[in-house]
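Subject: for your reference before the review

Hello V.,

The reviewers asked for a structural picture of the protein, and I figured it would be easier to keep everything in one thread rather than splitting it across files. Below is the amino acid sequence we used in the manuscript, unchanged from the supplementary table.
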Amino acid sequence: MVLMQCRGTDSGAVPASQRIRPETCWTQTPYERFSNSYGDRLPPWRLDQFAAKAERERYVGAPKNRPADCFGKADAERWVPFDAQGGKVYPGGPNGCAGTAPEATQIGSLNLPSNTTYATTSSNGRGSAVFNVRAGSSNASLGCSDKIDCTLVAIPIMGISCDVDASGLPGNENPDPADVKAAADKCTAKGKYDAGQNAQPGVVSDAAVTGSLWWSGSNWRNRITFPLEFAPSGAVCDITSSGGQSMFGSELMTQAFDQWSPIFCLDPARTPVKQVQTGEPQARNLYSTGAIDAALVSRIPAETPLSRPTVKAPVGATGFAVTFTVDDENGRAVQQLNLTPRLLAKLMTLSYPAIYAVKGSYQALSDNPINIAADPEFQALNPSVPDDIGTQSAATLLSLSSDSDVMWALTSYINADPDARAWLDGKPDPWGMKVNPNYKGINLPTETWSSLDDFKPVSIYRPGVNDCLYQNPVPYLPLVAAPLTRLSYIALAMQFSIAQSQVVCSLPSFIPGSTDGAKMVALGRQTPGFRFMLGVTSLADAERYEISEASLQTHVDGSARQDLSSIDGRTFVAPSPTSLRAAVSELRPDTDAGVWTYNYAKALSTKSTAEAYPGMLLVYAALPTDGLDKPVAKAYADWLRYVVTKGQNPGEDLGELPPGYVPITEANGMAGLLDYSLRAADAVEAQQGEVPPLKPTDTPDGPTPPNDPPSPPPGPGTPPVPGAGGDPPGGPPGGQTPAADPAPGDLVPLGQTLDSTSGLVGLAVPLVLGLALLAGAGAGVVIVRDRIQTRRST
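And here is what came back from the structure prediction:
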């Protein structure tokens, strides 16, 4: 099954210029829309009985003036030019010699990989794939928007319907019968694999039954189409407004800002407030020196000097995820992964040798598993994952090279686990694996993670083996780690399974033996069926791009087996509205810093907190209550009031809170956070230098009432109230009435399509049913934001 995004509508009711054609469908590479044949004038596409006669000529779609870069003609060629929005035509051809759209030109790692998806079905005809819908902001040549209609096209690949005697060829062509017989054999070929068999390296597939001929008449005629509708672009702020105010900081809030910002940009009565994405430590430093007026952070330590009185108003309850793209022994995507803090510590400390050249010569790591897949600890927790993974990306956790509050939270989680901390301090795990000595005793938590290993395996630092490392012999394992500077870059790599380990020597020169321009580059995109990647992303990015999220260990009972011969007594928790809300309920006020803190050590050692997700982070808007001009102060105050009220309404439309966040609402047990943010907004607007105090009794649920005078005993129908001895079992803090289960609209169900008032009910359902039943023509898929959108399709 080939899934594509095409500009136009699949309807006879619109002019021909507005209908989808293979020429208006997007592909990334030239060979997805070009086919040639040497020594054979009758490739399968020329025997396609459902192709128009003009499409069965020897040369179809080629430009009239063939560029010199396109070399000589083959015996038969089929060009499928790309017709871009605006009328420009890109002929393509071999190696794109006649021109390709700019988005199709691979320039370093900046371009998005193709969203064309070649998906296999299981032997019963069912399957699933993730498809990425692109709007004009990420693919201007395709140009999809709220003004330009586009369509998701699913093309079942069932082979070419062959004109076996070539009687329908155009013109006066009279091929030799032996050539026709050979061509018919290729055209009717059924493929090299049995149903359900994995692809094998080196096997040349039969073109007639691969997705390479998606444009042929036999395939195109069976297409199933789904209209795509786009809401106004989230980038509307760049077009409709100038000026406004900025907030620097947390990438955790990027998805929320994408939906909040247009509400302010499209309303002339409001002042736009835009996010400038930076690391939180950098934003804190800029704010503390007075260089900026607003910051988005998850930590402001009491020792951080601030140049003016500042409120820290909660605006987002979200966090980080350890995401994964892993295939099992049958080549199918693993759906669940369990990880312990010690496994994360092993990955981050470069304690897996990654390749046998390192394992055999690096004495300190010689007894360690080659990568995490071969680690007995990982295998005990994830038995469905093969233990013979060969990719070097299985030896690392793709994480941040820049300073970040996410790194502080991740290392706080690792540091709070007794087994992980003991291992970092030098105690081998139960199977004998030891920490990389360069990280032994490392002080955690930290907001900056450094690549400390300096080992160079001399066996591969030789000419002809690795010319790049011979010329520039840098340490090897930091190349395997290859951290990135932004969470969004990690999300992109995880979404498309692009292994970042910089371990391939690229020799761009065509001169034999020349090493001019030699440089180490990334492993690149992994083959489906053989993928293994782990990465740290924001929860909102993971939800938006549907990247699988690992379950993290939260509690170990005293009866749990250290050798993991049984995992009984261990609790693993995935991010969800429930687990995030449970973590938020454990926040406690730090009155000196004016923020709420999470006690990782207590959370991991207490059974009652076992269901709390340890990757939760609260994001604050740090704003001054003195020194701002009145219009600026009002703009920030208005923004703050909106985002903590209407902006907490879950949904995927403009102004709403996207998946990946738990709304800061009373129904979610966060009345105290909401109340403080509203009081903070008043203080910001007043600019009197007053900061609402955060009291020891200010829990997320709200201020805890005093115990004196004592409360009367509860009467019938009255909820119990805690006395001096504490809360009753199972009761909420502060004697509040236990809240009823929130209504569905009060929580963001991570990974689930939401109902909303804009007519976007059950958006994924038509797509799921359409592809499953091959009866979905005309079913609607609505994309509500300008973004790379993913949907799993059955």
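For the response letter, the relevant points are probably these. The two ends are 11 Å apart (CA to CA). Residues 671-686 form the longest helix (16 residues).

Happy to draft the paragraph if you're swamped.

O.
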